[in-house]
Amino acid sequence: MIEFESVSKSYPGGAQAVNNFSLVVPSHRTVVLVGSSGSGKTTLLRMVNRMVDPTSGRVLIDGDDVRDRDPVALRRSIGYVLQSGGLLPHRTVLDNIATVPVLNGTPRRQARQAAFGLLERVGMDPALGSRYPSELSGGQQQRVGVARALASDPNILLMDEPFGAVDPIVRRELQDELRRLQTALGKTILFVTHDIDEAFRLGDEVVVLREGGVIAQQGSPQEILSNPADEFVREFIGIDTADRQLTTDEVGGRTVVFDGDGRPVGVMAS
What we know:
By secondary structure, this protein is of the alpha/beta class. 33% of the residues lie in helices and 26% in strands.
């Protein structure tokens, strides 16, 4: 479990990224922080692995203040996936995945062998393990990034807009892969995105942030869609836009769903 207790973050010159933010991320659940630029979502994420220390307040993991942990040891115990993948360009895919286990003392051969299994787990051909990051597509690089984050079998995964740099089709495939992995592994995931549709697709709980890390609303996707807290949330989730206003009609014996512009968007399951 991750707990933010009244955390704030100010920078020299008076800029305040986060102001008095509190939140509990339950174990084995996916919580998504969603907001536009300036909402403090990445700052909050990086407080968990001490890439950013709060100016005031505390961040706890299973009741222990992260400031009492050695930063290097803390980061090696937490999976971290970046938008760009963050892969080491001079190392092969296998060696990228094996990085943290080797640093933690696992023999290199053993860590590389385990990396083959992780490639399969994230939906990649293990034969790609001998390639370098530059030889992979953007979607493949992100899959390797997820595999590397899982390599030390961490309880916590931090994911900072990990699918934001790929095309929409690959992005949906990666979202599906993450959902499958979470069903199988049950990690505690804190996920950051600016995309409300991605937040609703992945999150057990979604936290909509205003500027400065102020919580506008938090709850399940169903709760937020059915009862937006205020006009800011209504606009952010696009509740009044055509693609959120859905209707149904019977066509050829099937119930077809249409958006507010009358375009078909899907078929109701029987």
